[in-house]
Batch of 3 targets.
Target 1
Amino acid sequence: MCYLGGVTLANWVSSSLVRLSVAPASRRRSKTSGWSCVAWLTAAACSGGTLDAGYDVPRGSLPVDNRNPVVLLNDGPWDNWQGEYAIIFANVDGPPLAGIVIDDSVPWPDLADNMDGWQTMVQAARDSGLENIPDPVSSSGPVLVRPSDGEIDSTTANRSEGASFVLEISRELSSPARPLVVVTGGRLTDLADAYLMDHTVTERVVVVSALGSATADGGEMGTPNGDMDPWADFIVVQKFRYIQIGAFYEQAVDFPDSILEQLPTNPFTSWIESKAPNVWATPIASDQVAIFALAIPSFVSTVNRAVDQGVNADDIPLLTNDPNGDAWLVSEIDRAAGTDRLWEALLAPSTFNAP
């Protein structure tokens, strides 16, 4: 058996093909070229050379994980736990939190109010000793309109603050082995807008969205979140490396009284305790599934490759499972793997460093 830096040959070849398969469309090679590349590297390693093969091998079933820098893209801070969990994991096992972009939406139409809530959350975290938490960026812009010719590049761009931020931070932090991940829990307008402003953004960004639905055969980019800007959905699934978390859970179980009473006393846990009774009961509100999918490899139970197959009567993009598809569609998750790790982090004395 040939080993490459502690990784078996079979596993390394598999992971290498994964990396090739998620390369931006503008840089993808043919299957023959991909196999030739893997064969050349394998021969070099097995003939006496060494490779640090573990450097960019994915840690779970997705091509990105807790080592990738993350930007959150969301609206209101009160209906779910995406912001809180991103902050906690940024201070424990990752992924590192590089930015927070806040916009408005139909459920949360007051952008100033949304920003105030996120700023309060961020300040509570900082006052509790949590570190490396960026200031939220306010982004305004209407949903995108499908042009009359149906061509993506004919779309009028908003040139929003959020899109500009994604472009800037992706140039700063993204690398071929560690692209920037934009984790969404709202409409995809700013991401599509970023593409309209600079097509090369797709070479630096992977999108992980808590959005739509997933079934045994595929899914759609609709409720939740995808119905807010269908044309932006279409642009993102056509142009970006896209991972859809289409499975959700009953988030009311995240903080039972037995856990709340054990939390350390600080401004951040006080924020959590005050918010817990008011998070939305509907499972599809649990945007934090996108953070769990990155932070905890075992959280994703079932994932398939998929392709977009047109749109439905409401212009919502439809996805169909296809082993050669460019999108990734998560249809089953392990809730316990997420909340158990979260509770462990919140209760660990080392998590909060406030004096």
Target 2
Amino acid sequence: MEIASSYRETYFQLSLTGQMWQHEDLEMLERHVDICFKAKRPWIILDLERLTFLNSQALGRLVRLHMRCKDAGGKLILFQPRSNVLDVIEISNLPQFIAIANTEDELTECMEII
């Protein structure tokens, strides 16, 4: 998996490419998230448009990331997940806890309280 990060005034966007299932992938995501928190930016957008696969360990990591953001007064938003990735996310009932935006307008709505 590859991660590209971009910083905005109030949030970080992490764009994931490839598959998120190996331990190294999860550790790399954690390192990027740590950078966000060190910069005092607990609002994180995970752009999943180019993510093709994730497993149950990756889902667990998303839940932990969501809790870290929430505890720090921020929010995790999953942006533009592919249909197969979205299916896994929905089967796991994550949309009950984690915001998902499929369009720029939905993303704007999710971020209105920043």
Target 3
Amino acid sequence: MNVALVDDDESVSRAVMRLLRLAGMNPTSFRSMETYLAFPGRYNFDCLVLDIYIDNGQSGLDLKARLNQEGNRIPVIFFSAHDDVETQTEIDRVGCHKFVRKGDNIRLLLDAVKEIKPIQR
């Protein structure tokens, strides 16, 4: 399974990438929305693990809304430390496969990714 991870926190990215590789997946990490959007193979991912708040005022919620506008239905798992009512309302608005809170057992993230069926190419 090809998984894209968009998170500006280097230590989190390293841990998630290691977890996904150990589970036999093929992860690619991006530090910003721009690097993900500029990646020529971005349509080849089976799933997107997306932080909600990224440095420079970027928002994973905005990225998901943009993907929705483009008609890109890649399954998104939001992975964030922010779990307040406003954030949950925005997550419901843009939609996602799952929300996993940073700080919870990281196995929950792996389980959420494993629920997604890889795209047949």
